[in-house]
Write a structure and sequence with these properties.
The protein has 493 residues and is of the alpha/beta class. It has 18 helices and 20 strands. α1 packs across α2 and α11 (314-325) runs parallel beside α12. Bound molecules: adenosine-5'-diphosphate and magnesium ion (MG). Residues 26, 28-29, 32, 47, 49-55, 204, 206 line the site of adenosine-5'-diphosphate. This is Terminase family protein.
């Protein structure tokens, strides 16, 4: 790499195709060449997985940075997961005269070259996007980027002479969304302004036809058509409207169960537990009724507590849940726990541990099917639209709710999820599960009443105490399904 002649360096500076071969050491594939040599200001790819879009965008980004010192390239992707991945892929391509320094912080990942050129990579939620003053804007996973983000970013970039915009995604969203509309425009009438390409995964010489047949057999037809053939299938979109969520987001701080007395007066609550796999977090979301009903006398609710734990063993997470929901903790009327996959065993252990600790059977195993998710998120949406469910300003919760996508397949099933290449949905799932008990009956807000403590019922022997409690509870069962707080601090109607 050190042996480049001045002529080669000069040719690489003028031509991204030469740059890719000579400096990055890998020639572009034919379908990538078309994009790299196009002069269109907006270049739009609707592509299947592994088609080679990150590579060609990476080449164009690094080429611009190499060729014009002091250039600024902005990469925007829908979620944290996809930003990190794409940034690392592009930074990983940089070598020789374009090797740079990569810095990562919570908000922005940057790659800086010695000539002063910078690549900044951010998620769509970062404000920098809105005032982007850049030479090259790359929008990755564009089908998941909100229309409003595009509308505020685009004029700044469009107005800048010589700036370029590269947009790519699998086919998500439809008419009215910039990705769909720009792509259509560039397919139907490509010109110097907008040009588009359609790349099914099969355009890549690396994608093996035999392997792809296997993928087709293992997956739903809609999924295969969208993710690999890059064909627009049923309706897709973002599940919650951003404004809807903003309208119920409040500045109220979350409860801190570690603080003495913090949970007094909260009353019985419902909770949802999501069990993390390798990469995503364990999550607990707690919802309580608010003392004041709405103007129509309906109970209002608020998310009062959220915990998200990464890299924690199942044992440690169960112990943490017992600490939070056991004696002295939250008074769970129901704690819904996901049983899919690893959740099955953990849910059983959690149920037993909480029973041992409180004498109450509060854990409700939930197997999250597409149907259940549709019901739970539908209910969440209803409460949110009625302004009967307040949300805290918790970054993961808000981000994940905004990133939730629905997809209606030809068979009529609606799938709701944060696509895993965009980000996580652990908190959103725990949130949805916490609402399940509210679908069956209302949580009762705490009435002003006498406080009965453990000592009032517990005798010296715990078993007797538990029996006493159970008898007491049974004799009052018909009063209110969800009126039973934990043993330590409970109030009688
Ligand atoms: N021109 C190329 N030469 C060699 N390998 C390539 C080229 N373009 C892409 N690849 C490789 O093919 C795979 C998929 O490419 P990528 O750009 O990541 O696709 P996408 O972003 O569309 O999923 C990656 O392993 C990438 O390194
Ligand atoms: Mg990619």
């Amino acid at each position: 790499m050190g042996d480049l002649t001045l002529e080669q360096l000069d040719a690489a500076r003028r031509d991204p195709v030469v740059f890719s071969r000579v400096i990055l050491g890998e020639p572009l594939w034919d379908h990538q060449l078309e994009v790299a040599t196009s002069q269109a200001r907006y270049r739009v790819l609707c592509a299947g997985r592994r088609a080679g879009k990150t590579r060609v965008f990476g080449v164009l980004a690094l080429h611009r940075m190499f060729a014009v010192p002091g250039s600024r390239v902005l990469l925007v992707s829908a979620g944290r997961t996809s930003v990190v991945r794409t940034h690392k892929e592009i930074a990983g391509m940089a070598r020789g005269p374009v090797s740079g320094t990569s810095i990562e912080d919570d908000q922005v990942m940057t790659l800086t070259l010695s000539n002063g050129s910078v690549l900044e990579s951010v998620t769509q939620s970062v404000n920098a996007v809105r005032s982007a003053d850049v030479d090259l804007l790359i929008i990755d996973e564009a089908g998941f980027v909100e229309q409003s983000v595009w509308e505020s970013a685009e004029p700044t970039i469009g107005a800048r002479p010589g700036s370029r915009v590269l947009v790519a995604s699998s086919p998500w969203r439809g008419p009215g969304h910039f990705f769909h509309d720009l792509w259509r425009q560039g397919m139907e009438a490509p010109d110097a302004e907008v040009s588009s390409w359609h790349w099914p995964s099969t355009v890549s010489p690396f994608v093996d036809a035999h392997w792809l047949e296997g993928v087709r057999e293992r997956n739903a037809p809609d999924y295969f058509a969208r993710e690999y053939l890059a064909e627009w299938t049923g309706a897709t979109g973002s599940y919650f409207d951003s404004d809807e969520i903003d309208a119920v987001t409040v500045d109220e701080p979350l409860l801190d169960p570690g603080e003495p007395g913090a949970l007094a007066g909260v009353g019985s609550v419902s909770g949802g537990v999501d069990w993390g796999m390798q990469r995503d977090a364990h999550a607990l979301v707690v919802v309580a009724a608010l003392p004041e009903p709405d103007e129509r006398g309906r109970t209002r609710y608020a998310v009062r507590f959220i915990e998200e734990r990464y890299r924690t063993s199942y044992e440690a997470w169960i112990e943490r849940l017992v600490e939070l929901g056991g004696r002295g903790g939250f008074a769970f009327a129901r704690l819904c726990s996901e049983t899919n996959g690893v959740g099955q065993m953990s849910t059983q252990v959690l149920a037993r541990r909480l029973w041992e600790d409180t004498g109450r059977d509060v854990v409700e195993p939930l197997s999250t099917t597409a149907k259940l998710k549709q019901d739970l998120f539908g209910f969440a949406r209803l409460l949110i639209q009625q302004k009967r469910l307040l949300l805290p300003r918790h970054p993961s919760l808000l981000q994940q709710l905004r990133a939730l996508e629905f997809e209606t397949t030809d068979s009529g099933v609606m799938r709701i999820a944060v696509p895993d290449r965009i980000g996580h949905d652990d908190v959103a799932m725990a949130f949805a599960m916490a609402l399940q008990p509210l679908m069956a009956g209302e949580l009762v807000p705490v009435p002003e009443a006498r406080v009965v403590t453990m000592e009032d019922i517990l005798e010296d022997d715990l078993t007797t105490g538990l029996e006493a409690y159970q008898q007491f509870r049974d004799s009052h069962l018909d009063s209110q399904m969800f009126g039973f707080p934990s043993l330590t601090d409970w109030r009688l109607p």
